[in-house]
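Chapter review: from sequence to fold.
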Amino acid sequence: MAVLPKKFGIRTDKGRRLLQRFRRSTHANFIAGNSVKLLKTGSLFFSELFAAIEEAEKSITLEFYIIKADKIGRHLSNLLVRAASRGVDVCLLYDYIGCFDTPTAYFRSMEQGGVKVASFNPPPFHNGLLWFDKRNHRKIAVVDCKIAFTGGMNIGDEYAGWGAALYWRDVGVRITGPGVLELSRLFTEHWQDETVQSLQSCPPPDCAEPCGNDDIAIVSGSPHHNRSRIRAAFRLAIAGASKSIQIQTPYFVPGPRFIIAMLRAARRGVKVQMILPAKSDMRIVQLVNRSSYSTLISGGIEVFEREGTILHGKVMLIDGRWSVIGSANLDQRSFHRNFEVNVIVSSEEFGTQVDEMFAEDIAKSRRISLEEHEKRGFLIRLLEKLIKPLNWFL
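The token string follows.
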């Protein structure tokens, strides 16, 4: 969009300069006139998504990193086939590596039911074996060019809490308004790169009518970019904070410059809180997460570990107003080697909801003290040092 929304939470000359720099560094699309709903659990996310699919009349496009053939995956498959049978144009794009364990028969049955299915980056991998390391980590669903869903959730029972042994804590959003068409545009780009199958495309974002008061910015990341737009968006948001920074992420391997930006914010009086997982699906990454605790806590940053679940949400809240929710983790893979998408919402009302969600998660978390952390054993310290050189690959 050519014009920045006038009320994107910016009221000072310094703030406006920061916003202009933000746009130059991230190439974000700023879009006014949206309505954004916070979906703070997997059950809420899938309930809203499935209801929209059941009511679809013209088109459904879905793009997910992982789609499992479990209970929730089969339910999605049935809904998509039923939609296709009533004349809805249904397109499903999945990441080949992310769905490596998903039976081919699962996708074939949908194709036989009229769903157009394509995989991202199937063998032989584009540009040789190095392309094997590139993943489409985005999560986007668009229904009838009117409703969009995005966030951190994949398609699997653990995200929805449907019979999973351990429920995963994740977050998503439901968007109506012009921002839907920008997410549709991103999907269309990937779809056209991966398949010759046609799809019913949505009109450009400029053609949409406003339907709410929420301003959003959409930042997409790609390994093709010379500089990481996802990392730039996070760092500039931190640099612009004046009161508070709240971060929730499952994987925290952002590199030294990112950590320095957080420490600088704390030194200038910004309250910085981080929620990381007490139990992770990737033990090796958790060791790296914890290796930075001493630096963070010594620098005045409050560190919490969420208990009772596997934390998978990717959320940042700046000054109670700028909310960042999407697919990107705070690690080198999301910054440089994955395709990602984050939505930034400028809204005090929405920010209040995110703040309340943080409070709920902190109440279920344990704050890590420097004294406690320094008591970790020699073996753990040794493993942290041995793994640290592998940060780029995690």
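Two observations follow directly from the output. The chain has two domains: 9-34+217-394, 41-170+178-211. The chain has a mean pLDDT of 89.
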